[in-house]
Amino acid sequence: MSTLLIVDDNQQNLYMLQILLSGNGFQVKLASNGAEALELARCKAPDMIISDILMPVMDGFALCRTWKDDEGLKNIPFVFYTATYTDQKDEDFALSLGADRFIIKPAEPDRFLAILRETINNCESRKPVDSLKPVEEAKYYRVYNETLIRKLEDKMLQLKEANRNLELDIAERRLSEEALKKSQRLLAETEKMGHIGGWEFDIDNGKQIWTEETYNIHEVDLTYEPTVAKVIDFYTSASRPIIEQAVKLVVEYGESFDLELEIITARGNLRSVHVIGKPDMEHRRVYGFFQDITGRRLAEEERRKLQEQMIQVQKMESIGRLAGGIAHDFNNMLGVISGYAELALSELDTTHQVYASINEILKAVKRSADLTRQLLTFARRLPVTRKVLDLNDTMAGMLKMLHRLIGEDIELLWKPRTDLWHVKMDPGQVDQILANLCVNAHDAITGSGQVVIETDNVLFNGDSCSKPEGITTGEYVRLSVRDNGCGMDRETMKHLFEPFFTTKGIGKGTGLGLSTVYGIVKQNEGDISVFSELNHGTTFDVYLPRHIARDEQTSRPAATTVSAIHGHGTVLLVEDEPLLIELLQKMLETLGYEVVSAVTPGDALRLAEEYSGEIHLLMTDLVMPEMNGRDLSREIQKIYPSVKSLFMSGYTTDVGDTRCFLEDGMHFLQKPYSMKVLADKVHELLGPKQPEGQ
Fold first, then answer.
1. Measuring CA to CA, how many Å separate 141 from each of 153, 188, 356?
2. Euclidean distance between CA atoms 323 and 327, whole angstroms
3. Distance CA 113, CA 368 (A)
4. Distance (Å, rounded) from C-alpha 344 to C-alpha 583?
């Protein structure tokens, strides 16, 4: 037995439909308005809803729109059954909202029942209903308002016609009065639903007449006696001159006006209103339309904020991609420069006249590498080795360094939470976050001051009032760095995390500190919020996702030192940068290794299959065309099961792809690196060269 939900504010209509449908095999539920219908349907969905249009609390159009936006209800047939029909536009508007049928009252019972059964039977073959897109909101409000206004005007015409009939035929007075009452009730309900009021004023004496909803919008009782002068005082100081000029033009020249302004109600509430005035100079009157559009304005403002947030995210992502690409290519070139400089030094005596100059080149390369590393961190393109960490333990080891970093004049307070949750991230990134935030705090303080570092556990759910804008629900470890320095204005905060943006003087900062923090936090799927006021300090709150698997051992990377000059073995070198592969081959051969080189993974696999000896080490770029380094390593191991792998890179292509993160036990070189670092790492993997004869 199909269940039908009937929505109508007229109890007689509800009763008649209930009798008809119940007697023809349907189970019937009743609701007197749209809000009540939604509540019933969400408790237990019906097989069909049949709704009137004009109802209090929520009208049929609003109900249909909400119904079709509800994932649980949108595919349930929605049928309008209404006597309030102005023209074809009403039916078109109803169908555009997703309604399945639009039936005019009264319908012949057999035909009405046939339509309902046909609609239910065709339900499964209907296309799924999509919710209105955000870009259609303005169009919806415009058509919705036009429909209500059209119905209002239609009812006003009916009222005038009823009055004329009353004057012409006194015998029909009683019927006309009843029609008038119905029209007035309909008009009042329509006004309430659309927050639309009507008004008119006498041009000669300025006295006004309001409908009930106009009183409600101004928040005055029905005893209030409006005049043009008194009404103008409701408008804000910015809107008052505009409405005064509009009234002057309509009175003196008969010019209509259509304005969106602001008023302050009798209870002190600020409201946005849409006011229209049209003159009737023959009768020396002005008729008007008055609507509360505060809700629409708030929705528009919310959409504007969301658009600004989206633009900011897109800007940061675009800058990040650009920075990452530049830094990666720059790192390759730095590797070539430093490599050849080291090779040159190895062939020179320390007393040679260019020895010191080449050393300065290497120092400049190191500084440039540090700069590009910060760019890669911002761009979230830096490979990381994640560990399960207790932030308190990790940060405690940095306190002495932070004391030296911020200076003796600034007090450093450390307030850790004792039962802090674990996080999983690269320990070195924690150091970077703390160092950059503390340096930023130091630079914001003139003379003596205070920096407070705190940790805490936080849980954000859908009801969290303190949840920072943009952060998803879940469990987080919060790291806060607070200072009592000079603070920042709104314009500075808009650009805070952009690379190279700085308020410091020339030579006092690169503008990469906070962008580095931003990149690290985003790379670890966290978020960061900032609160600051001029002369009242700044607080940075970093939110890192909680790591649940507590059985993993927390650790910091162990420092290893390996000293090796020459080694033995065969290295399969794979690098898609021609200048860099040539340099690396020379460096490895200088260190005593036999080198087989390839510029693509495909070439590397072919050479590995054709090579007659044993390949001991695969040294490959982590990110390449055709195949990434980790996948190449797996393929090479199928040919040489005992081969070891050493990965190198400037960045990973996609932080969302877990294949590009390094795991425990994987060996990695961050570009650019020195010949000594290369020698030590290869020596660590292949061991020292064996003496001849053994």
1. 18, 20, 74
2. 6
3. 80
4. 12
C-alpha triplet 489, 492, 494: angle, nearest 5°: 110
Q: Count CA atoms closer than 13 A to 494's CA, side-chain side.
A: 8
Q: What is the token pair recorded at 520?
A: 């690290």
**Are the beta carbons of 651 and 381 closer than 8 angstroms?**
yes
- Containing 257, the helix (H) or strand (E) segment is strand 257-264
The pLDDT score that the predictor gives to residue 338 is 79
- What helix, strand, coil percent values describe the chain, rounded to 5? 45, 20, 35
Do 305 and 285 form a contact (C-beta atoms < 8 A)?
no
Residue 681 is inside which H or E element, if any? helix 675-686
Contact 552, 564 (CB under 8 A): no
User: Could you tell me the CA-to-CA distances from 185 to 12, 180, 274, 576 in Å, in that order?
Assistant: 16, 9, 23, 79
Residue 416 phi/psi, 5-degree rounding, is: -80, 150
Rounded Cα distance between 5 and 29, Å, is 5
Return the pLDDT at 627: 87
DSSP state of 500: T
In 169-233, which ranges are continuous DSSP H helix? 173-194, 212-218, 228-232
SS3 assignment for 562-600: CCCCCECCEEEEECCCHHHHHHHHHHHHHCCCEEEEECC
Q: Are strands 538-545 and 667-670 parallel, antiparallel or unpaired?
A: unpaired
H helix or E strand, kind and range, residue 28: strand 27-31
Yes or no: say if 394 and 388 are a contact pair by the CB < 8 Å rule: no
For Cα atoms 581, 585, 588, give the angle at the middle one, nearest 5 degrees.
135
**Residue 33 in contact with residue 56, Cβ under 8 Å?**
yes
Cβ pair 126, 75 in contact under 8 A: yes
Query: Which residues make beta-bridge pairs with 4?
Result: 28, 48
What confidence score (pLDDT) does residue 559 get? 38
pTM for the model stands at 0.36
Residues 604, 616: Cα–Cα separation, whole Å: 14
Structure tokens at 38: 């939604």
Q: In the prediction, which pLDDT does 552 show?
A: 47
3-state secondary structure 72-116: CCCCCCEEEEECCCCCHHHHHHHHHCCCCEEEECCCCHHHHHHHH
Q: How far apart are CA 294 and CA 270, in angstroms?
A: 9
The Cα 610–Cα 613 span in angstroms is 9
Within the chain, which residues score under 50 in pLDDT? Answer: 132, 134-135, 378, 506-507, 551-564, 652-660, 690-694
Give the tokens for residue 20.
Answer: 């008809």
Q: What is the DSSP letter of 660?
A: G
Q: Both tokens of residue 535?
A: 């002369």
In this predicted structure, what is the pLDDT of residue 46? 93
Placement of tokens 């420069």 in the chain: 337
Measured between alpha carbons, how far is 126 from 527 in angstroms, rounded to an integer?
A: 43
Residue 379 per-residue DSSP state: T
Measured distance CA(151)–CA(186) in Å, rounded: 10
Round to whole Å and give the CA distance between 523 and 518. 8
